[in-house]
Amino acid sequence: MGPSASAAVAVTQALNRLAREDRGRLMAALIARLRDFQLAEDALQDAMESAVSHWSRSGIPSSPLGWLLRVAYRKALDRIRSHRTADRIGDSLLVLAGGEAHEVETDEIPDERLRLIFTCCHPALEQKSQVALTLRVVAGLSTAQIARAFLDQEATMGQRLSRAKAKIAAARIRYAVPEPAEWPERLAAVLAVIYLVFNAGYSAGPQRGNGLAQEALYLCALLDRLRPGEAEIEGCLALLVISHARRAARTDAGGQTIPLGQQQRGLWKTEEIAAGAAVLERALARHALGPYQLKAAIAACHCEGEHSDWAQIALLYDRLLAFEPTPVVRLNRAVAHAEAGALDAALAELEDIAPGLQGYQPFFAAQAELLVRKGLHARARTAYETALALAPSEADAAWLALRLGRLADKG
User: Fold this and answer.
1) Can you list the pairs that 15-24 forms with residues at least 24 positions away whose Cβ atoms lie under 8 Å?
2) What pLDDT shows up at residue 244?
3) How far apart are the C-alpha atoms of 236 and 294, rounded to whole Å?
4) In terms of Cα–Cα distance, which of 354, 280, 289, 343 is closest to 319?
5) Which tens digit of pLDDT belongs to each residue from 38-80?
């Protein structure tokens, strides 16, 4: 391999690393200056394309982030000049004034990612758009990767992203961390997006979903670094770390889902569980209890000893219901109480919440399991069939089909 070929490989590797680790920081700095999501994204892409040729010839600069930021400013200036009429250029040029005068050192680039995350998760955007924009702009996933994760066409996801960026511009959404009065509500929206990304990863199955779960972990750890000392951020991070520690036991060799109670605990990553538990203890010590801390505590109770502590889990769900009085929490609470011995009360609760969960696969899977325990096999069979029809992944479908088959053998 010649010098030029080896240089090109080194440049490609450096840019891939920067795109993964620092794209969010670069985008945040650009958007803070340009006030335009699409212009910032286009300018950064132009700068990275320029880096391929320039760095291959001249070597990787001492401050690659500073080089990219300086060139991106220049590329943005070129785009403004070529796409806007003369009477609209003035303000845009003032925004960029001085932005290309020198090569910025890495430690001179302000870390604006917290503002970027809150802008992407602004309540003016619908939740799926919040998720998509966060994954694209902060985590650096391609439009194609995001589309695959959510089983959308790439063109459809591209349109969703374009609409989200346009809405931010049209609504003049402030590029800022919320004021103190807005902080709890807006933080809840950000954490909901991260948790949704994580759950979408596991719903997609291990082959496609582990990467998405990793992105959620990355985003939550980033949020924790950017805003240290927030109990609910720590609670969410603890929840994700503990849950992800069980990933190797979630499916068998054939790709079939294995329920938590039947998983081989020896496959769980004990050091990760311990790390998550330590984060949870730090959060609880702040005495600012919230739903993510409770969910993390529930996850931890599944990992202590040889069996899940269902009595404690049921009590934690009782507390969680006060924060999130939703049908899904009531479902999980009912299952916990059934596992703790209150089967009849749990079945009555499922009957009560059934109207609000008719399209929710876990409801029918849980209902089927409890009906089997009660000996109501005909009703259980119907519930399993509905759950199978709603299964979000082949792994879940395989497990449900197996349970339905075993029930059929009972007559």
Assistant:
1) 15/48, 15/51, 15/52, 18/64, 18/65, 18/68, 19/48, 19/140, 20/140, 22/65, 23/140, 24/113, 24/116, 24/137, 24/138, 24/139, 24/140, 24/222
2) 94
3) 9
4) 289
5) 999 999 999 999 999 899 888 999 889 889 999 999 999 888 8
Which amino acid type is present at position 125? Answer: L
CA distance 320 to 291: 6
Poorest-pLDDT segment among 132-136, 147-151, 204-208, 291-295 = 204-208
Question: For the segment 213-259, what is each residue's pLDDT rounded down to a tens digit?
Answer: 888 898 899 899 989 999 999 999 999 999 999 988 988 887 788 88
* DSSP, residue by residue, 225-244: HHSTT-HHHHHHHHHHHHHH
CA distance 254 to 397: 12
Tell me the per-residue pLDDT of 315-348, one tens digit each, with 9 for 90 and over. Answer: 999 999 999 999 999 999 999 999 999 999 999 9
Angle at 15 between CA 30 and CA 194, to 5 degrees: 60
DSSP-based helix, strand, coil % in the chain, nearest 5 = 75, 0, 25
Instruction: With H, G, I as helix, E, B as strand and everything else as coil, classify residue 173.
Output: coil
Q: Which two tokens stand for residue 130?
A: 């919040």
- Domain positions in the chain are 3-111
CA distance linking residue 230 with residue 187, whole number of Å: 10
Q: How far apart are the C-alpha atoms of 279 and 227, rounded to whole Å?
A: 14
Tell which wins on pLDDT, 86 or 25. Answer: 25
Largest CA distance in the chain: 80
Name the pTM for this structure. Answer: 0.78
